[in-house]
Design a protein that fits this description.
Elements: E1 14-18, H1 19-26, E2 40-43, E3 47-55, E4 68-69, H2 72-78, H3 102-109, H4 112-116, E5 137-139, E6 142-145, H5 151-182
Parallel strand pairs: 1-3
Antiparallel strand pairs: 1-4, 2-3, 5-6
Length: about 190
């Protein structure tokens, strides 16, 4: 990483970019440039930001993909709905301590929105990041589906393919035995 992680996004007009984005804008030798940090970028043709860090590319297997990071203060400044308790436009991520009980924390935060918004009935709950790919649909705080719904279909297709391959193998084995006996001379 180039830049100081502790101060990278403290300034609302700052930006951190990925190595591949740095390579795209500054060339393959971007690491050799002394004046890299402090370069000004224009974002969305409305905001000038100053480069404060370059981070390693996000791995391809990550569920979150991005090439740059802006301070959250900038996002809040342009989206006043973010600070409203009844918005459901953002997914929040929380890192728990190793000894923390996720169910206990979910029980404590369950009615947090209801306490701040009248006539609102919604439950907040924690869901493990490792389950997010397959289980992404919820009803009443309980996972009810998502990509997991496709798994039985794929299983059925796999069984069908194995069945066809088995029949094909038996046909080839039977034909091969008959072909040998047809060419045997007395």
């Amino acid at each position: 990483m180039v830049g100081d992680p502790a101060t990278t996004l403290l300034d609302p007009e700052s930006i951190a970019i990925s190595e591949s984005l740095a390579k795209r804008y500054f060339g393959d030798d971007w690491r050799l440039k002394d004046d890299l940090l402090g370069t000004t970028f224009r974002v969305d043709n409305r905001l000038d930001v100053r480069l404060t860090a370059v981070f390693e590319d996000v791995p391809a297997h990550s569920s979150l993909q991005f090439e740059f990071v802006l301070p959250v203060k900038e996002f809040i400044r342009n989206n006043d709905w973010v600070e409203a308790w009844d918005n459901i436009g953002l997914r929040m991520f929380a890192r728990l301590k190793k000894d923390a009980d996720a169910e206990e924390i979910s029980a404590k935060i369950k009615d947090l929105i209801d306490q701040h918004v009248d006539a609102w009935e919604s439950d907040i709950f924690l869901h493990p990041d490792s389950d997010m790919y397959l289980w992404s649909d919820f009803e009443n705080g309980v996972p009810v589906g998502g990509r997991i719904d496709y798994v039985p279909n794929f299983l059925l297709v796999a069984v069908f393919i194995i069945l066809i391959a088995s029949i094909n193998f038996m046909n080839l084995a039977t034909c091969n035995g008959r072909a040998k006996s047809a060419f045997v001379r007395p």
